[in-house]
Specification:
- The protein is mainly alpha-helical.
- It has one domain.
- It is about 70% helix and about 5% strand.
- It has a 3-stranded antiparallel β-sheet. Strands 1-5 form a two-stranded antiparallel ribbon.
- Helix 1 packs across helix 7 (about 175-200) and helix 13 (about 370-380) packs antiparallel against helix 16 (about 440-475).
- The longest helix has about 45 residues, at about 25-65.
- It is elongated and about 105 Å long.
- Pfam families: ABC2_membrane_2 (PF12679), DUF3526 (PF12040).
Length: about 475
């Protein structure tokens, strides 16, 4: 066993020396690392600035709400409140679709504001866009660096002569392939470790076991992705007769997997599972809200039936005989009805997004990046599911706040009162908005398929390497 490992160690050492001698590769690697570090710390500074602004705005908004004093509760419900989405700590590494969705949300009675559904303008298409970020560097630039570093490992006259010499010295082509692969993979592992350290330093306030577990899984996913790219590039190098052919082949592979497939897959997903625009979404909800059971004079019919049922429930003949304020009861009923309609449309909207995501993930058969992106953004809590989780919490808070105001009218406004005012801040003081991120345990089931896809790509890359090694053996 030791004699079998000795040539492998020599091959790894020789490949390390070869990589170290390549000045252009050193410069390219340092450039990618520097860009990643700059993007990471710029994102960290931006996240800190946004968090400070969120805290300031939350305090200011609370002061405005408290300053209302005595006011009409229903008017206060329309006045509304603003809530602010906390930044996900790992967004510094992978911002996902965060920049396209916003972080400020107005909550008011009767409606779930259209601004909160800006994602209806994008859906899966949001994954096609985004500025420079650490995720872009790790998912696009690092694979390009791998291509430039590994395309010439076996191709070209000089590399082939060195390979024949090593085979003549007793190394097998498979050992040659594994040695080159292990040497390059070790460099990538070092880069991954540096990225992990930088990401940890950029997210110190969020340190916890769950945080490090999510970060570790993100790094592992990127490691699998890079390994697959490396394996395929080495196989292309071994199969190519010339350095130029190897470079063109490896670049074509990178263009397809890192550029074309990630761009085309969301487009196809949207075409297959279209979702409404923000305007169409609001129009559909409004149309259903305004229509009653018979479609003719809907509000009169609907509320006449509600009035009849209410009088029967309390055993009285006239509204004035009710022990509660009928207007407040009507507000409660109307709020529940509109909330149910909105929630049903929102569920349908996000079902469409989920269908788009599943179809885009199926494209990972052609590009490992289509598996990595949803996996990474899910672990970073910057995907559509994380945003929906925040919106669901905001909607619960909105509904509880509005219904508390309606309940105050129902219980305390007397029939003879022409105007009614109450301390709206006191009414809602016991209702707090403290959004919590998705727990890691809730995320893990969604990572199974993407991880399996990345593992399949690594297995496929190793198979290609094995076949390429046999070709080298035949040529020898």
């Amino acid at each position: 066993m030791s004699t079998a490992m000795s040539p492998l160690r020599l091959i790894v050492r020789q490949q390390w020396m070869s990589l170290a001698r390549e000045r252009r590769l050193r410069l390219l690697g340092l450039l990618v690392l520097a860009l990643s570090a700059l993007a990471l710390f710029d994102a960290a500074l931006d996240a800190r600035r946004l968090e400070n602004a969120r805290i300031h705005d939350t305090v200011a908004e609370e002061a405005v709400w408290e300053a209302q004093g005595e006011a009409n509760p229903h008017g206060a419900a329309h006045f509304g409140r603003f809530v602010y989405k906390p930044a996900a700590p790992l967004a510094v590494l992978d911002p996902g679709v965060t920049a396209h969705l916003g972080s400020t949300l107005k909550l008011e009675g009767h409606v779930q504001n259209a601004s909160r559904f800006r994602a209806t303008d994008g859906g899966a298409a949001l994954s096609r866009f985004g500025g420079f970020s650490p995720a872009f560097a790790l998912q696009v630039l690092v694979p390009l660096t791998i291509v430039f570093a590994a395309f010439g490992v076996f191709s070209g006259e000089r590399a082939r002569q060195l390979a024949w010499q090593e085979i003549g010295a007793g190394a097998t082509p498979w050992q040659l392939m594994l040695g080159r692969f292990a040497a390059c993979a070790a460099v990538l592992l070092l880069l991954l470790a540096l990225v992990g350290v930088l990401a940890a330093l950029a997210t110190v306030p969020a340190w916890s076991a769950a945080h490090f577990a999510a970060l570790g899984l993100m790094l592992a996913a990127h490691g699998l992705y890079w390994t697959a790219i490396l394996g395929v590039t080495l196989a292309i190098s071994a199969w190519s007769a010339s350095s130029r052919g190897a470079l063109f082949g490896a670049l074509a592979f990178w263009i397809v997997t890192a550029v074309l497939a990630p761009m085309l897959a969301p487009m196809l997903a949207e075409a297959r599972h279209p979702t409404p625009s923000a305007e169409a979404f609001e129009a559909a909800v409004t149309d259903e809200v305004m229509k009653g059971p018979d479609g003719h004079s809907p509000r009169d019919v609907r509320f006449a039936e509600f009035e009849k049922a209410t009088l029967a429930r309390y055993g009285v003949r006239h509204i004035d005989e009710l022990p509660i304020n009928y207007a407040g009861l009507l507000f409660e009923h109307g709020e529940k009805a509109t909330a149910d309609i909105y929630n049903r449309h929102v569920d349908r909207l996000y079902d469409g997004y989920a269908a788009q995501a599943r179809l885009a993930l199926a494209g990972s058969a052609f590009s490992p990046l289509l598996a990595l992106r949803p996996l990474s953004s899910s672990l970073a809590r910057t995907d559509m599911e994380a945003h929906r989780h925040f919106l669901a919490q905001a909607e619960r808070y909105r509904y509880e706040t509005v219904q508390a105001l309606n309940r105050d009218i129902k219980l305390n406004r007397k029939p003879q009162m022409r105007e009614y005012a109450s301390d709206v801040a006191a009414i809602t003081r016991g209702i707090a908005f403290a959004p919590q991120p998705l727990a890691l345990g809730e995320l893990l089931p969604r990572t199974t398929v993407p991880f399996a896809a990345l593992a399949a790509w690594v297995g496929g890359a190793l198979l290609l390497m094995r076949l390429a090694a046999r070709r080298l053996e035949g040529a020898a």
